[in-house]
């Protein structure tokens, strides 16, 4: 918003200028919480804000003439900044002139000379009185004390200044009155009226009766600013009807105390030719026009003079680049900020005028921001699309200001805007499924596997912690078998594992970040328990108590190949740890029996002798593990004449069925093939995951 107030220059400090709270439409009690700040564009603090009452107060006494000089308008520009939300308001305070200055002449006494042969109507220019006040408080008119020979004439200059001149009303006679004493009074238009006076002394001279005449007496010249030094401005056209020294004219500047010597520093005057040239740099922004008064004086006795008035108006050129002012910047900004969120307040100004001072702001189109014009020369930078810190953690924003001059002048300002992270990304495992292997009977605390996850967020939003979930697939909670390091994701065993009890575990792992609200992901680790040879073979048949023997009778005339019995054993382990072989323990004497290594069948190896004594056999069953474990059974075989055969008499040993003798070999080949295929598959899966 933009507010406008006015205040007379003679107000005392502490006086109220306006009710900000009311005009802005905000509650008084919110001014302090919204951190209302007052910023003066000129750097001087002439005003202050009463946060308790919501009023704009004078901080010091104002002097319009000191602040604005002779400018017809006098305004002070302020900026009000409020936060939560961030707002910028412009306040313009007009300083009203009061009649606090009386007119004053450059000199208290003016001495003029006039020839006695001067014709009625001859004019004697007078110096203009100065009044710092403006408008109706400035000089309104002049008055001259009553005189028989002179009257007062007031002319209007090109810039509106009234110029007094004394006009000869009646012919002079130097022999009667050689000197005339008059009083010139300058009156302003204030209430009450103030005035200033100067004494005018007119000496009546004889002889040189034709003054120099400037044609035209008032002229105007247009000149571009920044022209080179020495550029010709104009050549005065002055004529004097006299001859000789009385017609020889010399030129000089006529100055006054309102700006003594100001234009003389910028312009030079040739006293012989009347040429006016530049001798300093002209700047339209410093002053757009100059009033030059020239005195043309002849060399007669007494000398006569004429006066030329020249107004030099400068033409503005585009010689000033725009200026960018970053009033406020909100950095960092949350990545979930909605479109239209105000990021920065930017002001721009250009000292040139017209099109040269019209400025446009631009930013790169690919940025997710745009410029919105708040009011004249003030812009807001707002978001124009979604922000994503994971794609861009910050932006170097270059604001480019371009004026409308020809050629155009540009200025750019770059500032960095940081994007603050919000927890908008869940952690992500490198693989949703993993496979691990652990040896059974490993000590508690053995490392099994390490899972890893990543989170593109930052700070606490990317701080990850791991935990094991209960999947309900095992009867006992999975946490009784495994634990996980919450910081690095390493899975450890809690107790020794038994392959014969559990061969595989599914361990669901959850990773969670520390954001608010927290986000999480899950993965499953399949833990395969590797078998160890920790179980000895168990003889199922024949089943005899420990320390006892199994008694078996056979016919006394049993032939070789006769099946006596079969040892049946099992091993709780798996794989090669469960591959069993059968053998007879060596004895001192050779036995007429043999044991099939793979099947455990005990057969007659050679014909028995008549009246053979019972034989004691120790059959050992051994697995294929490392180290190998074994079990044994004692069998006592007694040949008898009338023994009933428990088993059918088998074929001769060389002619036994290949299917019966090679069954175990086929099983071994099948297990080896399956193991090789499994290893190849695991290798392929691992390669694809890596």
Automatic annotation (TrEMBL):
Keyword Membrane on entry: yes
Record GO biological process: homophilic cell adhesion via plasma membrane adhesion molecules
GO MF term (any one): calcium ion binding
Annotated membrane topology: Single-pass type I membrane protein
Gene (UniProt): Pcdhgc5_1
Pfam families listed in its UniProt record: Cadherin, Cadherin_2
Superkingdom of the organism of origin: Eukaryota
One GO location term (cellular component): plasma membrane
Protein name, per record: PCDGM protein
Location of this chain's protein in the cell: Cell membrane
Coiled-coil annotated residue ranges, if any: none
Entry-linked PROSITE patterns: CADHERIN_1, CADHERIN_2
Organism this protein belongs to: Fregetta grallaria (White-bellied storm-petrel)
InterPro entries associated with the record: Cadherin-like_dom, Cadherin-like_sf, Cadherin_CS, Cadherin_N, Protocadherin/Cadherin-CA
Domain Cadherin: 6-105, 106-214, 215-324, 325-429, 430-539, 546-656
Protein role: Potential calcium-dependent cell-adhesion protein. May be involved in the establishment and maintenance of specific neuronal connections in the brain.
UniProt KW keywords: Calcium, Cell adhesion, Cell membrane, Glycoprotein, Membrane, Repeat, Signal, Transmembrane, Transmembrane helix
Segments traversing the membrane: 663-687
Chief location of this protein within or outside the cell: membrane
Record flagged with keyword Glycoprotein: yes
